[in-house]
Batch of 3 targets.
Target 1
Amino acid sequence: MDKIKELQKMIDEASNIVFFSGAGVSTDSGLKDFRSQYGLYNMKYKYAPEEMLSSYMFYKEPEEFYKFYKDNLNSLDIKPNITHLYLKKLQDKGKLKGIITQNIDGLHTKAGCKNVLEIHGTIYKNYCIKCNEFYESEYVFKSEGVPKCLKCGGIIKPDVVLYGEALTDAFIKAEELIAKAELLIVAGTSLVVQPAASLVSLFKGKNLVIINNSPTLYDNNANLVIHDNLSNVFNKLK
């Protein structure tokens, strides 16, 4: 059977679907992923992406952190693509029960999706590390250099999980969501970042589907594997 038809059949027959998304879901909107040919790992910076986006860099060299952050993670003007919009349609049908995402770009929410578990946080929430004052993402990205709190002068920190930090409470909710899923669709992630990738091993449902441009460590565990651009896949689904 054609892989797209097989995936469509799985979706049609399932009543409890969970979608797990990585950076590859947003590349069709114009954002860079991490490990593809044109991803952040292949760009020339003073430090590796894990260092640039680490808690150590934020607190010790905030100027370097914010240069990288502003250059690469600004999704304010980015729009959802076919994958995000298809998931909204699937949710409206009552089939998709939730989305677990490693992405911090907010595109699932922009597409109108509900029950989005952002296990690595979001660029749309920012807080002063001294007084905890909330700031909109526009203020952070449009500020010169390191954004500072207007009340106390403290550095503003994006509410994202940096390398070296613990995951949010959304991770526990993600575990619960996957444990109940009948169909788990994993898309746009190489499944190498832990502990997020370990969520896949919690799935005990009927069908595990992995859609990614390149192979992943979990391909052998899946009922269906599609190595293709996500837009090519989701454009063909009903």
Note: The beta strands are 17-21, 96-101, 116-118, 121-128, 134-135, 156-160, 183-187, 207-211, 224-226.
Target 2
Amino acid sequence: MPRLALGVSYSGLAYHGWQSQPSGQTVQDQIEAALARFSGHRVSTLCAGRTDAGVHGLMQVVHFDSPLERPAHAWVRGTNAFLPRDIAVHWAREVPKEFHCRSSAQSRRYAYVLLQSPVRPSVDLGRVGWAYTKLDIGPMREAATILLGEHDFTSFRASACQARTPVKNLMRVDIEQHGAYWRFDFEANAFLHHMIRNIMGCLIMIGDGRRQAQWLRTVLAARDRDAAAPTFSADGLYFLGPRYDAKWGLPESTVVFDGLPGAPWSPA
């Protein structure tokens, strides 16, 4: 059967994360139901990176096998016809059978968008995290450099994490301020469950002066979840998608938020 890859975006506000659950209220459940209605047969999908409840996806990549032969645009338009309005398929590509959306990924990218304000979010509730105290970018950037490279990230790992090893290679952490909004970009070969949210909790404590930048070195070395800050809110976390070898011919992003220059949650 041909193997198809799809690029999907979604708002995580209404869903219990990506992975299928008996409730049916997950992004995977919605995608598979729409694909089944369009194709006329049961479809089982795999994704590049599972997201938690409340986490948004700007380019989730999924793959599945189907005997149905249709042009790429038909998979996009046909599947979207059966999806809720907060989930959309942006592109479809036929890929070789050896392609696997998870194991073929060279890295994965996330962004966290934070509102710094004495007043909690309203219009962008659920789409940004919130810090009500002033943050200092210098110590946060200094702390972020401590995490770069290959480390044992046990201190930032949720107890329910199913990863085979806590050792990951964190390739990039960028921190920028856009007025009242902050954007934190992360790229790694893979991430542990709650890893970014636990790092964010530490960075916020450093940014608002409760901890010094070098404290993060102690947290990392402890290899103990109790050494780090509490898990930060999922509200401002966005999965920007995986990176693949160019040989697969897959896009690196969707067109989500094009035309909104300067939006801090833009994938650009």
Note: The chain has two domains: 3-104, 107-238.
Target 3
Amino acid sequence: MATRRNAEEVAEALGEYLGGAVTDLRRLSGGASRVTSSFDLSVGEEVRPLILQQVRGDGVAQSGIVPVERALLEAARSAGVPVPAVVAMGEHDRLGSGWLVVERLEGETIPRKILRDPEWAGARVALTAQCGRALAAIHSIKPEEIAGLAPRDPLRDPLSFLDALGEVRPALEFGVRWLGAHRPAAGRTVTVHGDFRSGNLLVGPDGLRAVLDWELAHAGDPAEDIGWLCAPAWRFGGRGSVGGFGPLDELLSSYSGAGGEEIDLERVHWWQVYATLKWATICALQASTHLSGTTRSVELAAIGRRVCESEWDLLALLGVVPPPPVSDLGVAADVLPPFGRPTATELVEAVREYLEEGAMAKSVGRAKFEARVARNALLVVERQLRLGPTLARAHHERLAALGQRDDTTLAAAIRSGDLDADWTDVGVALAASARDQLLVANPAYVTSVPAASA
């Protein structure tokens, strides 16, 4: 498999395919579907900075993915979308089941830097309108002109995700139920990018330089891209509805002004709810790859405890306000267990301090990042040891008030519609549960800027 080959083998194969010498080949990321690397290609005296994207996996399931993406990038470029130029592609060869080489452009993709650092202040002013124009250009591409571009049912993914999780999440069932009851009339079918958000936008001091990562593109409703960009998950602490950097009315105005259809706020709101639900299920699925043993990773394990952030956002988008938290947090956890000292909390605290003073202080790059993730995971354990008994008792009291034995029966009752008459009470109970999970997983998220509807 290409992604497992060493750098020398990849560089040699690339050089043969591209007719030059490959140097400085460096792996940049390893996402769920692609491995991305940067390199320089020397042909005579010319040196070109390029990017290699390799598809994970082999076999029939991966066939045809790269040609579709190449066609999309070329069509997008012709439509005026800022994208990197395609240099070469291949399938089922020495580089794996599929690969694509594009030009390497300069810019920043890390959302928190773009949202906070002074050097990107000018970009923040320009980005919202630029995103609107880019989306209008993407949506002008006729899906039937891209061979292999499949349509996608917006409700199929969350439902199939929920059933595949092996974990009961009543709040997500609540969201799916709401989506089914409030589905708006679809707009015209267009080419949808599928992952248009902060992190996939290459930004320079002047604003948007390129739209990246097209592997999730499909035929669908243009409002899907707008709702995804405006989902709370992609705001990264910023106050703007659009990626944390801008207002929704400016995005919609620039979008329609560039030829996009008029999209009303109610329709955008539905897609924001959809996006938030879908991101929650994606996080849960990422954690499941660790729990199943497929990919053991402290980062994937920690992601599982972030699902409650999206549940909190989801319920806020639906206008649900939780009651105040219980007042006796931590009281039950003060009882000293019969195991002596150090207690479990004190042992976890010691390991966490070791990471902070050792691995985090001395490591660099990926090792430093993983040490920080491990430290944060231990902080979650510390808070659960301290708050868990009281929060668990409150949760079971809420279930009993709804006439439910546990989360499994609650989720089933929501899906079947048995609790539709008690919709408000169910929503409040779920919001309280999400809030209590956040008090353990990420207390700062409870006090952050709440998700707002469109």
Note: The chain has three domains: 2-103, 111-284, 320-446.
